[in-house]
Specification:
The protein is mostly beta strands and 257 residues long. It contains 4 helices and 13 strands.
Length: 257
């Protein structure tokens, strides 16, 4: 049943991001495998064009995964890093994850935010058979900002390779991050016709969702998820925000080998 565990790990990894500028939030590949795992597939995400936008964009993300028995992993959503946890209840380590940035044409005059890799830390603690607590820190984001994510995942139902779960998370971001994505400098305000806005640090978003996976055929696993994000604090009050609450959708399939 090794191939089931490989595809299931990749399916769990392709959950919904907590921000439109992130591919993923938490480490979700699970414990170190006893043998190296490899899988490939495709995930299609429907997310706002930027946090607070009333328009949407669709992203196709290659779901390529390598998870080694020595703790190293590489995967587009979870990033590239090392899981130092050697047991099944506690996973923790370092990684670099993708920040997709913001295109210059999303809000004319606002300017572009370049894509980059964010160094960070992660920790997951399975406190009960069905409940896992999660945390992640991402540094070196736009404007030199930092974001901290805290959340949990609860398994509603499991049967073999099939599973359905609930996910909750909250994001705290510093003033640099919030200025980059929700603020407007005098130059940006003049170019966009919006007012100058300088947000501070604080809780900037909360999210709740449901995700699931099932075996489609030998070595093939299908997965999907639906979540709602609500902007909060200074982020929600930004002149750039058109909708404070927005849905996010992901669908995909993975093949293990």
């Amino acid at each position: 049943m090794h191939h089931r565990r490989v595809a299931a790990a990749l399916a769990a990894a392709c959950t919904l991001p907590a921000a439109a500028n992130e591919l993923g939030t938490f480490y979700e590949l699970g414990p170190r495998p006893q043998a190296n795992r490899y899988a490939a597939g495709l995930a299609v995400l429907s997310v706002p064009r930027y946090d607070g936008s009333d328009q949407r964009r669709t992203l196709a993300v290659p779901a390529l995964s390598a998870q080694l028995a020595n703790g190293f992993f590489a995967e587009p959503v979870n990033g590239i890093g090392f899981n130092a946890g050697t047991g099944r209840s506690l996973q923790w380590g370092v990684r670099a994850t993708v920040e997709t940035g913001r295109s210059a044409d999303l809000v004319p005059g606002l300017g572009r935010i370049e894509a980059r890799l964010n160094p960070g830390l992660f920790a997951n603690w399975r406190v009960a058979e069905r409940l896992e607590l999660r945390g992640a820190l991402r540094a070196g984001m736009a404007g030199g900002g930092t974001a901290v994510h805290l959340g949990g995942a609860f398994d509603l139902w499991r049967a073999g390779a099939a599973a359905v779960g609930l996910n909750l998370s909250v994001r705290w971001s510093d003033a640099d991050y919030n200025q980059a994505y929700y603020g407007l400098t005098p130059v940006q305000a003049a170019a966009t016709g919006l007012r100058v806005y300088t947000p501070g640090a604080g809780v900037s978003a909360v999210q709740a969702g449901i995700s699931g996976r099932m075996e489609l055929a030998p070595r093939w696993t299908g997965f999907g998820g639906l979540a709602w994000q609500r902007l909060a604090g200074d982020a929600a009050d930004s002149p750039l925000v058109r909708e404070r609450t927005s849905p996010r959708l992901v669908l995909g399939a993975a093949y293990s080998f």
